[in-house]
Amino acid sequence: MRTMMVVKIGGADGNDADNVLVDLARRKDYVLVHGGSKEVDRLAEALGRPPRFLTSPSGVVSRYTDEETMEVFTMALAGKMNTQLVARLQALGARAIGLSGADGGLLLGRRKAAVRAVDGGRVLLVKDDRSGTLEDVNDDLVRLLLSNGYVPVISPPGVTPDGELINVDADRVASKVAVALHADALLLFTNVPGLLREPADPASLIPEIPREQLPFFMNFAYGRMKKKLIAAKEALEGGVPQVVIASSQVPDPVERALSGLGTVIR
Amino acid sequence: MRTMMVVKIGGADGNDADNVLVDLARRKDYVLVHGGSKEVDRLAEALGRPPRFLTSPSGVVSRYTDEETMEVFTMALAGKMNTQLVARLQALGARAIGLSGADGGLLLGRRKAAVRAVDGGRVLLVKDDRSGTLEDVNDDLVRLLLSNGYVPVISPPGVTPDGELINVDADRVASKVAVALHADALLLFTNVPGLLREPADPASLIPEIPREQLPFFMNFAYGRMKKKLIAAKEALEGGVPQVVIASSQVPDPVERALSGLGTVIR
Hints:
Chain A has 266 residues and is α/β, with parallel strands linked by helices.
């Protein structure tokens, strides 16, 4: 297969997905992965079920996804966002196909038996959370679509072999897909210019991280950025030569990220 | 292409989709199309936006779909129902792929400029309704998936060339897909045994309708059944040799419908 990249866009407020879509529409060498946690939050609020989060003992925050929350999650991501992104790409002339992790067993994983969460200093064991661990990507399906001129637009949730939907992190989905496709690059778009030394100061961008120094730079990661660095680490370990964390709030964000603007990890 | 059928399941209360899925899982010669109006109603109610309907001068009732309702419609159908059906088929061993009408321009149509609706004896012109007319099916995409062992699970909405999502009736989607694929049969599952002379009496089933008598039998159609007969008419006119309207509330509903149990129109 020719040169290939995996592009991940988020759903946090301020992310300008459309810049990325406009830039991607002229290309055919990519798979798009998206999250959309803000959209899930909005729908949950509108349904009178405010989102709840779990903090792991190591400080990683994740959504508490019980059965009803999984429905909300699926509707917001695989329903609204995925369909809107696909329709927009189609209107821009791309032949986009939306896929959730359930489609063709695309994102196959297992549900975590229990999740450890910190609450007021104590560590609790949460058992009805539908968080999962991604184990396998049906890359044959992705290749089939790409080789026939279609662009896959991939969204969580993932699925277990028993057909249970599981919450898998979109950054890590992007990383796993990049590894499965032997992609040349993984671009993780966000609403800041990259990894910052000072979260509030865009001028404190860290332009490059040699892969062996990733554990050190993990100290600068806050909130969602921590997951991006974990995803970057997994992609590099899986053979993806470079990962770029970059802003989507500029024109031509894909071209810019490919030219090294952002935080380049390799 | 080998023998092929299009199977449509609904989302009205009492429809037992799972009977159909279990029966389909052992087959590979089908495309599944689903609606899910009850699911859309439920989500709309939960969001504090009770569903509204329009009645055309000829008596056909359709959902009033403004922009916000289109989001609800997409989340309930392409999000929740489609993903759950796909996950269930996967768990049953089928390689199912969910597709909304936006995917690859699968269900391409145009938005109706205005919809005529009867309100208290007057005929109104409704302009912000996102109802559409289906004009083209990307059957190449469906064939690509089928010929590679995947089973397409298709859901409204449709899409315009400008990327606007449109509300298209799932029965008529099924009919249009059957025509585009030159299917041998279209099975329309519902929660009654078929077209009934007396809506309340299952024993009044009309077992067979010769196609030339469809206009006469249209008189027996009430509510959603009217749309099924319109879909049947369009399928027959498009070259599909037979349409069966049958109950999903029995074991082996697909086998039964194929053996002629239900209302057979040919």
